[in-house]
Amino acid sequence: MAGRSKFYSEKPYVIKNCIDQRKEIFVAKVKVYFPKSEYNNLLSLPPIFRNIEIENREEVIGEYMYSQAQKHSLPITKKDRKLTTLLDTNDQFMAFAVFEKNSTYEPFVRTMMNLRIQAILAGSTKEKFYKLINNASYGYDTLNTEKFGKIKMLDKAGTFIAQHHPNHIGTRRISANTFAVQTKPKTATCFTSIQSGVFTLDNAKYWYLNYIYNFMYKCLDRKRFHFVLADTDSIYIAIAGDPTKDCRQQFESIVTDKQFYDQHVYQYLPDPNKDIYDYKKILGFGIENEGYELTSLGPKFYSMIVNKWNKEKQQYEFKPKITSKGISKTQDISHSDYVNVINKDIVKKGINGTVKMYNNIMSSIQVEKYALTGFNNKSIVLRNQCCCPYIKGLTANDYIIKCQ
């Protein structure tokens, strides 16, 4: 089904009515369970991805993060909805709708990927064009867009009416007679094949976990690497390797099962003895950045000193790579600012600017935001800065730090 559908957030059963019934169909019901005896072995990277509601109370997010928010007067809401990793399903079992079997997406991806590689070899700018087609085709609009609110610029009369609507979320005053009103939409439109969107995203998470649990944990010394932060399609790992080698040694110095490692490593990572077709293979992993220092304050908030090749000088140079979600890149944020948040407990503010038009009048709006705070409620952060998952039936007080 590659047509247009609408997700009704209040009536999930309507989704099934949007899908044409075909002969080749299947139903997938997901129920995950891990015995409590295995919890300690899974704490490094919990294997369940789930979007949950988190109450910002001390017994939920922990004393360390709660006191951090109170100390710096951080504007936190009573509840947040976050995509995080868990050890259980929070007593919620996921059942997929009935889908038509779709086998046409795979050859499309291979064709576009081959065209992209040919453009790279030819030095053509079409490489970015084919990359955009691939990234936009898998279902970027199949994400949980029904969770995001819409913001309208209204006058006093329109704001008064909107605030009495059941879908009203919040209001912010912009000027004397202009208000930004946020509402929750009733529907979310999707133009992409649901199979391609839903199952491509879920398969990415599965392959991600398959690499960690069925490769890394089986042949590497788990005491010598640490997951610093992770996203849906990337992961940053700190490795205690050989101090006599440079930062491009990868996992060579922490291999425990050499035979298993040599047999399977290039099923995932690129083989240096092969060409770009192997480096860009589908379901493969590529090394994006390598360096000696990485400071992370939470998901999508990190600064890394990377070792990059300078084509002009024909040598490697160390440069900071800074990522701060929701903060304008024009802000004066440096690597030392990230370090100061952890070592000196210093928060940093920034200003985001935008332009709005209302009644044919262009207005420049500047909003002061907390840029770097160190506050993270996607997991329970302990006093020693270990990040632990939320577990159904347990509170933050149930985690115990054992002194070495």
Question: Could you describe the 3D structure shown?
Answer:
This is DNA-directed DNA polymerase. InterPro entries: DNA/RNA_pol_sf (IPR043502), DNA_pol_palm_dom_sf (IPR023211). The protein has a domain at 5-148 and 185-299 and 376-398. It is 27% helix and 29% strand. It is α+β, with helices and mostly antiparallel strands and 404 residues long. The termini are far apart. The protein has helices at residues 14-17, 39-42, 58-61, 63-71, 105-122, 126-137, 156-163, 194-219, 258-268, 276-279, 335-343; strands spanning 5-8, 25-26, 29-30, 48-55, 79-86, 94-95, 99-100, 150-154, 168-175, 178-183, 187-190, 225-230, 235-239, 291-298, 301-310, 315-324, 348-358, 361-372, 380-381, 387-388. The strands form nine sheets. The protein has a three-stranded antiparallel β-sheet, with helices on one face. It has a three-stranded antiparallel β-sheet with strand order 14-15-16, covered by helices on one side. A hairpin with a 5-residue loop joins strand 19 (380-381) and strand 20 (387-388). It has eleven helices and 20 strands. The radius of gyration is 24 Å and the shape is globular.
Calculate Rg over CA atoms: 24 Å
Low-confidence stretches: 1-12, 18-26
Shape: globular
Percent helix: 25-40%
The neighbouring-strand order within the major sheet is 8-10-9
Structural class: alpha+beta
The major β-sheet equals:
3 strands, antiparallel
Name the beta content range: 25-35%
Number of helices: 11
Distance between the termini: 57 Å
Give average pLDDT, whole number: 77
Q: Would you report the number of β strands?
A: 20
